[in-house]
Amino acid sequence: MKQNNGTYWAVVPAAGSGSRMRAEIPKQYLVINDRTVLEHTLARLCAHPAIAGVVIALSATDRWWPLLRRLPADKPLAVVTGGAERCHSVLNCLRYLRRTQPADHPVLVHDAARPCVRAQDIDSLLQACAAHPVGGLLGMPVRDTMKRCDSHGAILETVDRRRLWHAMTPQMFSLGLLMDALEQSLAREQLVTDEASAIEALGLRPVMVEAAADNIKITRPEDLQLAEYYLRRQETP
Ligand code: C5P
After folding, report:
1. Entry pTM
2. What are the pLDDT digits (tens) for 148-199?
3. Ligand 1 centroid from CA 204, angstroms
């Protein structure tokens, strides 16, 4: 991928309602150690020297963003309106960026709900993608035995876990390629849950880069305490 003088825009989809959290407030606005999850995530991204700025997708009904007081002030943050699914939100961010950035500009897409991402893992991703023609993503090898079940919980099969990975974010691809891939997925009515799936559907093979296990996505209520623990531990020298 293009090296772009070592600086890249990031895209953060933050327009989800977080229904699995069973909270009144969307999960990106829940508070950990005096800051919202979204503020932690943006702080992590903006602290990285390779990030030029961030485009954030917010829900059309978002009422919390204007209340944030601890947003990074040293890099440009742009806000766009998100869509019905994560892929629509990402695409809206990419369309916004495309107005000012060339099609071959590599972008990093990162979930608002992953506040514990480490600078070191972003470095590994940048390094792997610089040497790769397609792009890639952070992930982690599956540890547990994997089962496929029917809708009643009856086990249909045990899936071979060798070479099976959890897909995480950031995921890094060229702006134009990713826009085409997502637009084509939507045209086929495939609501992809990550960027790599849309790229794979074009017949391309992104590279998987192993990340630390603490790059969790806050999904269920108990994940909040886990993220708090990881953030504190990472801050302790
Ligand atoms: O719901 P899930 O955990 O898969 O969401 C992943 C990320 O995508 C979250 O940061 C969420 O805010 C975002 N999202 C979005 N627009 C949607 C749905 C989810 O930006 N319509």
Report:
1. 0.96
2. 999 999 999 999 999 999 999 999 999 999 999 999 999 999 999 999 999 9
3. 24
**Structural tokens at position 145:** 């035995």
Measure the CA–CA gap between 31 and 24, rounded to whole angstroms.
13
**Residue 38: CB within 6 Å of ligand 1?**
no
Report whether 110 contacts 8 (CB < 8 A). Answer: no
Q: Is the CB–ligand 1 distance for residue 170 below 6 Å?
A: no
Domains of the chain: 8-235 (3.90.550.10)
Q: How far apart are CA 26 and CA 16, in angstroms?
A: 7
Q: Is the CB of 15 under 6 A from ligand 1?
A: yes
The minimum-distance atom of ligand 1 relative to the CA of 112 is 10
DSSP state string for 121-169: HHHHHHHHHHT-SS-EEEEEE--S-EEEE-TTS-EEEEEP-TT-EEEEE
Q: Is 115 in the pocket of ligand 1 (CB under 6 A)?
A: no
| Contact between residue 135 and residue 172 where contact means Cβ atoms under 8 Å apart | yes
Q: Count CB neighbours of 235 within 10 A.
A: 8
State the Cα–Cα distance between residues 9 and 145, nearest whole angstrom. 37
